[in-house]
Amino acid sequence: AEVVLDDDREDLFAEATEEVSLDSPEREPILSSEPSPAVTPVTPTTLIAPRIESKSLSAPVIFDRSREEIEEEANGDVFDIEIGVSDPEKVGDGMNAYMAYRVTTKTSLSMFSKSEFSVKRRFSDFLGLHSKLASKYLHVGYIVPPAPEKSIVGMTKVKVGKEDSSSTEFVEKRRAALERYLQRTVKHPTLLQDPDLRQFLESSELPRAVNTQALSGAGILRMVNKAADAVNKMTIKMNESDAWFEEKQQQFENLDQQLRKLHASVEALVCHRKELSANTAAFAKSAAMLGNSEDHTALSRALSQLAEVEEKIDQLHQEQAFADFYMFSELLSDYIRLIAAVKGVFDHRMKCWQKWEDAQITLLKKRETEAKMMVANKPDKIQQAKNEIREWEAKVQQGERDFEQISKTIRKEVGRFEKERVKDFKTVIIKYLESLVQTQQQLIKYWEAFLPEAKAIA
Amino acid sequence: MDDAMVAQPSSTAVDLHGDSSLQVEISDAVSERDKVKFTVQTKSCLPHFAQTEFSVVRQHEEFIWLHDAYVENEEYAGLIIPPAPPRPDFEASREKLQKLGEGDSSITREEFAKMKQELEAEYLAIFKKTVAMHEVFLQRLAAHPTLRRDHNFFVFLEYGQDLSVRGKNRKELLGGFLRNIVKSADEALITGMSGLKEVDDFFEHERTFLLEYHTRIRDACLRADRVMHSHKCLADDYIPISAALSSLGTQEVNQLKTSFLKLAELFERLRKLEGRMASDEDLKLSDMLRYYMRDSQAAKDLLYRRLRALADYENANKALDKARTRNREVRTAESHQQLCCQRFERLSDSAKQELMDFKSRRVSSFRKNLIELAELELKHAKASTLLLRNTLVALKGEP
């Protein structure tokens, strides 16, 4: 009997027929202490490395811009790609069922074979994509947007076939989150170049992602946080030569705290607005009943009109709660998770530094050993020592290069991230305020229509 | 900036077209630990009073004593007795203030100050409302041609000393219990389960109408209260949101700084508007519904009394028939029957007038309050729109 995998089981087993091999990066913990296989073949290093050797770290701003220019030149065309996630469709039955989403890409970029195309993907496919990107780019300093959270409760309701409003809400929430996730990912010029991303967007068939517990956004973040803890426990006394990093880390820490506070308050707002909506609907019904009882004709009519107004207002409140949530609340929760990814990237840099430090210490030890051997006059041991010294000199050099590389990348990434953040927030704030204006205008319309009815009571 | 919380008696749903020969108002009120002291001021040119202008201090229990005195008076059986004002209840508000004082250390000083402000405003609003309720009760009595001439009313208005009705509290509680038993008997009467035959179409209609109306207005009142409460919660939610945006803005180093700070200011002002909206809905809708819930109960009580009088009349008829068959004590039975008949007819006539007054009072009150409600809703919606639009212009205008 075939073991069928579904999105959200905590313990997952590999399907024998799966293409994912035992050596695949998904199988390894994302932050392994050994050099990850992904360092060398990854496109970004090869893309960037040759060009920037000559430039120094002294003018980061100009530095950033020229890097972007470089990448744009490499792409050949201006960033132009639009992703939509739509048409959630339930596939299968019972606990093995899952939701399939349509992912549509519209683009004029030459790297894609068509200008408009769509594929069907399920949630674990998104998680699989994220895990691949994370394993390749996180530890070299790229801020990889986190995938949406898993939710066992939400998905179970959907699987079991509950057609109520809470499961539709859940699916819509997830669909919107998946769309935002992809949009953020393709906006990243480096990630956009990644073949796995392209395959995700274009291929009609995609190998099933396994071990999605490790792959989930929460899983990755858990690992990032674990690494952070490990880093802290290592009491890395890093000689921070660059105050910029310390400053930025502090800034992100503060930002994280404030966003969490704001998010909690906005969630309360959403909740109360929904309550207001329900209570308004209940009041509308009782106003209608009262209108029916009222034996004065004009007053009776006015009360019925009041009931109608209140019903419409209930609808308004519902729509506003929707806007509160999808625009305001979700933006905040997206950024809370994004900032976790940013913090992770900073921690990777510290780990990188530690590795370099360790290599230097080991090199020192090897040199001491060589000296000892020379004194003791043991020719074969001397040769071995010399070999080891060469090996560790290379490692020290690599360590330094890696550290410089990750530092450069992070500077650039943070610059890009902040620009995006400003744009994102500004756009959403304006959209949200416009939704509030809309609500008020509707209220004006309704009450203006009601006023003459009230005046008509004679 | 008009204070929507000023308690104006006319806004609490009663249209008083009395003459000015007896004017009553509550000129002052003081809230002490567990009681409220109302200063009742009377202006009158009526010959009965020693002075033309005078005041006394009264507490809630004394109002209840006055109300019960009217209810128990047979002379007023054919009238709708204005509903007694509800007991002043600051418990909830006091608890909230205390909780705030005990403190949640995670909130900033500004947040704390704002929340304290909100709660104090709430306390003040409850206080003003209780003053208004007590005042309206007295003013309705003063406006009613029959009720205003009551001796107990004069005593209440004029007697400088304490009316010593506090002990009545225990009696009041017991009385309440007994009253409920009597009430279920009344309910049986009024719902027609007692087999009493109603002869008058007008009263038959009124009975069915009032029974249904009272239930439905009570429902509407409860639900209006819940809407008001949700609205208030919503307004309160803006406090931490504004505070968090303020902190964010202060910390930011980029263009989002001004955006966040402007947004923080916007939410602070929206909060005030939403809060005002909630309290206006409370006054114009909830309070009005509550008042007419009580007034319709008073009207129902009138119907009960009339039906009891009808029952007495019918029993007297039966007794007379019996006496005639047996030919014993016919004259006593006759005079008793006549008394019952007269009483019943007197009650019916007066009740008819009272019920018609009740209807016109209700209609004009609803009209006034619904118009004011709509006008206030419009005012607030327009103010909100302006505020939002200004913020949008400011935000869009930035680089």
Q: Your description of this structure?
A:
- The complex is a heterodimer of chains A (458) and B (399).
- Chain A has 458 residues and is mainly alpha-helical.
- Chain A is 69% helix and 6% strand.
- Chain A has two domains: 77-215, Phox-like domain (PX Domain, 2-Layer Sandwich); 252-457, Substrate Binding Domain Of Dnak, Chain:A, Domain 2 (Up-down Bundle).
- Chain A has helices at 43-52, 60-75, 123-137, 152-160, 165-187, 189-192, 195-202, 212-215, 217-233, 243-293, 297-376, 379-455, and strands at residues 81-91, 98-107, 116-122.
- In chain A, helix 4 crosses helix 5 (165-187), helix 9 (217-233) packs across helix 11 (297-376) and helix 10 packs antiparallel against helix 11.
- Chain A starts with 42 loop residues before the first helix and ends with a helix.
- The model of chain A is unreliable at 1-69 and 72-77 (pLDDT under 50).
- The longest helix of chain B is centred in the last third of the chain and has 71 residues, at 256-326.
- In chain B, strands 1-2-3 form a three-stranded antiparallel β-sheet.
- Chain B has 399 residues and is mostly helical.
- Chains A and B meet through helix 10, helix 11 and helix 12 of A and helix 6, helix 7 and helix 8 of B.
The number of distinct β-strands of chain B equals 3
Share of helix of chain B, binned: over 70%
Q: Strands of the largest sheet of chain A, in order across it?
A: 1-2-3
Q: Give the helix tally of chain A.
A: 12
CATH homologous superfamily designation of the largest domain in chain A = Arfaptin homology (AH) domain/BAR domain
Please summarize what this structure is.
The complex is a heterodimer of chains A (458) and B (399). With 458 residues, chain A is mainly alpha-helical. Chain A has 12 helices and 3 strands; from the N terminus they run ααβββαααααααααα.
